[in-house]
Design a protein that fits this description.
With about 190 residues, this protein is an all-alpha fold. About 55% of the residues lie in helices and about 0% in strands. It contains seven helices and no strands. Helix 4 packs across helix 6, helix 4 runs parallel beside helix 7 and helix 5 runs antiparallel to helix 6. It is elongated, with a radius of gyration of 35 Å.
Length: about 190
C-alpha cells in the first residue's frame, strides 16, 4: 500500500503570520443540537393568535383595496386599464338589468296572491323584462367594445370586454365589486 507523502514543514516566517479564522471555537456537537432543538408542536396559542390577527389585517387590507379598485388586490379578471374603463363605462349608466333581482322578488310575492290573473300577468311581465335585459346586454356589450376599441386601439383590445361589461350591467349597483368609482351620468374619458 502506498504511503501518503508527509506534510510540508512550514518555515519560521509562515508560522509567525496569524491565519484568518472564524474568531471563535468550533461548537461541540451538544451545542449544535441544542441550537437546532425546537418543540415538537411549534404552534402555540400565542403564535396561532398572532397569525390569525395578521391574516385578518391582510384580508381587511385586500377587501378595502378590492372595493376601491386597487389593481394590486383585484382578481385577474378585473385587472388592467381596459377592465377599469369597462367598469366605469357601465357604472356611469342606468341599466334595466340591475333591477332584475328586485323584480323577481316582487313576482315571487305576487305568486302567493290568490288571483290567477295577477299571477299570470306578473310572470309574463317578468319574461318580457328578461327579454329586454338580454337585448340590453347585447347592445351594451357591443357599445362597450366599440368604446374600448376607440380608446385603446384595435391592437390592444382584450378578449371578453363585452361579456365583462354585460355581466356587470346586470349586477345590482350596491353589490358590484369593485365598487363603482363613477356616479350615474358622469362623463367617461373616451380618449
Amino acid at each position: 500500500m502506498a504511503k501518503t507523502p508527509p506534510a510540508p514543514v512550514p518555515r519560521d516566517e509562515e508560522r509567525a503570520a496569524p491565519t484568518a479564522g472564524k474568531g471563535r471555537p468550533t461548537p461541540s456537537r451538544a451545542e449544535r443540537e441544542a441550537a437546532r432543538r425546537r418543540p415538537l408542536v411549534p404552534d402555540t396559542k400565542e403564535a396561532k393568535a398572532a397569525a390569525k390577527a395578521e391574516l385578518a389585517v391582510k384580508r381587511e387590507r385586500a377587501r378595502v383595496g378590492m372595493a376601491t379598485g386597487d389593481d394590486r388586490y383585484l382578481p385577474a379578471r378585473d385587472k388592467g386599464p381596459q377592465r377599469r374603463f369597462v367598469r366605469d363605462w357601465v357604472d356611469a349608466r342606468w341599466t334595466l338589468g340591475e333591477w332584475i333581482m328586485p323584480l323577481m322578488l316582487v313576482v315571487i310575492v305576487l305568486g302567493f296572491v290568490p288571483n290567477p290573473t295577477l299571477v299570470m300577468a306578473s310572470f309574463l311581465g317578468l319574461w318580457a323584462i328578461l327579454l329586454l335585459v338580454i337585448a340590453e346586454m347585447v347592445i351594451n356589450a357591443t357599445l362597450v367594445k366599440r368604446a374600448a376599441r376607440h380608446k385603446f386601439g384595435e391592437s390592444r383590445m382584450e378578449r371578453g370586454l363585452g361579456w365583462y361589461g354585460a355581466m356587470r350591467s346586470i349586477q345590482m349597483r350596491v353589490l358590484r365589486m369593485p365598487k363603482p368609482q363613477k356616479r350615474r351620468g358622469e362623463k367617461i374619458d373616451l380618449g
